[in-house]
Sequence to fold (281 residues):
Amino acid sequence: MKPENHRPHTREEKIEALGRVIDTLDILRVECPWDRKQTNASLRPNSIEEMYELSDALLSDDTPNIAKELGDVLLHILFYSKIGEEKEQFDIADVADKLNAKLIFRHPHVFGDAVATDAHGVELNWEQIKLKEKGGNRTVLEGVPNSLPSLIKAYRIQEKAANSGFDWEKREDVWQKVKEEIGEFEAEARKAEQSDAKISEADRSRLTGEMGDLIFSLVNAARLYKINPDTALELTNAKFIRRFNYIEQQAAAQGVALKDLTLGQMEELWQKAKTFEHEGE
Fold:
């Protein structure tokens, strides 16, 4: 949604605005004790936090905050580039030039003679191009960062494998695999419950493996139905929080501690929260 008072800027104005931020950062790097002491290592945790804050704004479709959080992310890009410049390794121009060269190289259907008629065709081209890039991926899955959150990593692994031809012939076939994984987890769970009142470490290890397989199969199903599992789960997290907060608020309004509500009372309030949400849709 575009703010009512937004005026599109010219190319020159955009370049000037970026230049002002670079100039301000140059000053802060010299004159501000906090900015002066920052390193790649010290900035990294803040960068991760800023990306999560941007993610929250995007999920909420909060236009003012999206612009604000993008600015915070941009600051970190400029900051790392400034540190690289100080070390005489690279600067923001090198970063931009490398990005531009990569965009052109990875879009031969636009800047070359390759053909891609849809987005999926572009993705298939990308996987092959990345293997040919100088300093690029040596294997298909090498481009998936180790530090990615597990759910996103599973999605990217499956997406890359599928773009290399390792995929289901029909997407509905994935449900047999999901059912198989549910059955295997359930079998291990029943076995663990029968063996001892307390689940042993060996049982827990097997259950952990089976649960991982089950989640991986559900991520695959989400991919096949064009659903990002991380986004889907975060939307459900937000929905659960809203409904649970409603239970807590209603308990407080009644002068009752949350822990003193019966499960039946909680369920009744939960259903009311659901009803209010549906009425607001």
Q: What stands out?
A: The two ends are 19 Å apart (CA to CA). Residues 55 and 238 are 13 Å apart (CA to CA). The chain has a mean pLDDT of 91. The chain is about 75% helix and 0% strand.
